[in-house]
């Protein structure tokens, strides 16, 4: 597997390559030991932020508006405060790379502008502490992923995302047997716990989708014991989650693998076999119908999300068009007025529109547009597995974000800001490569070009 844990190495620099700890020099050995401890600390913090951290209990929506504090709230505050301190510490500790760490890409700059715009409305929100904390989470998620990628490398960061997703899948699977109340919930037609949503630990559909995408794009031989067992576990969790958005995400990913000609033959074969198997089961009526568990009538209005979005958009346009009413806190107030069962805005776009007004919403649209252009360009021009994994991850974030996930904390937020850090770099690298290739083709005949290149190198 290419997505393997580097047991005896520590990533150094953007390339993500490790160095062996065995060294006869005691000073060098101690220095590498400190780097290893620093990396383990960063990984632990990465996992805590990626996981949320877990909520572990059902909390009344009004409790956050009132500012009620319990042990889980304290844990969240400590983790996110630690993450902010870690960012400043990394910038201060590595002066040789400080300039690179402080250089943000265009999407990240737009994201910072959106955070500033959301902060303008936090002071007038009815729950300013809650709004300020959620805005702080957006800022930390953006900054943490930027510094983490600069510090440990883009590929190594993608491996960290995979293993965090896999660990959360393991946690949900273990909780299904040892602590069912944390992960099992009722479905549309069954009041008994029959749907493995896992939201108090992590959204089962989200983390299983990310794990499937990154496993299939990073493994070379899936038919070995460990990759095959992992695929089976992730697919089982995906099915039991009964999350239709997750089904769409994985279906789009497999469809892209069939349509896009990439270097990943194994992924294409898996996608083809999955398509054939699904069609065969459907033809013989052996495929269980999702309508037995989820209400098919809720597809047209997206589980009443369309009505909720109209209501929240109307509140924004009539009460605070330009600055909004406070990020996240406003949806906790005005969302239950329409449907008490929905709670929040159930869309990162409506959450930003209601919380930050038209100004913040326009910046979010600009951010997503720029990233979508980079992703489309990469999907068209590159065939390597890393680029395909990053683009697939971004598409999954957009689909999940449109249907209910947020960009302040959790798996979707971390993957979204990872895409904002890596997609522009891949796009610029592709543009430079295409420019160089075009110039060579214009000024050198094909035979002369091949003769000028050293053996084993490509132009």
- Give the rounded overall mean pLDDT: 85
Beta-strand residue fraction: under 5%
Main beta sheet: 2 strands, antiparallel
Q: Could you give the order of the helices and strands?
A: EEHHHHHHHHEEHHHHHHHHHH
Secondary structure class reads mainly alpha
Number of strands: 4
Helix content: 55-70%
Given the C-alpha coordinates, what overall shape results?
globular
The total number of structural domains is 1
Put simply, the count of helices is: 18
Question: Low-confidence spans: pLDDT under 50, at least 5 residues?
Answer: 1-10, 12-23, 435-459
User: Rg, please?
Assistant: 23 Å
What is the straight-line distance between the termini?
29 Å
Biggest sheet, strands in spatial order? 1-2
Task: Describe this protein's structure.
This protein is mainly α and 459 residues long. The chain has one domain. 69% of the residues lie in helices and 3% in strands. It contains 18 helices and 4 strands. β3 and β4 form a beta hairpin. It is globular, with a radius of gyration of 23 Å. The two termini are 29 Å apart.
Give the gist of this structure.
This protein is mainly alpha-helical and 459 residues long. The protein has one domain (9-452).
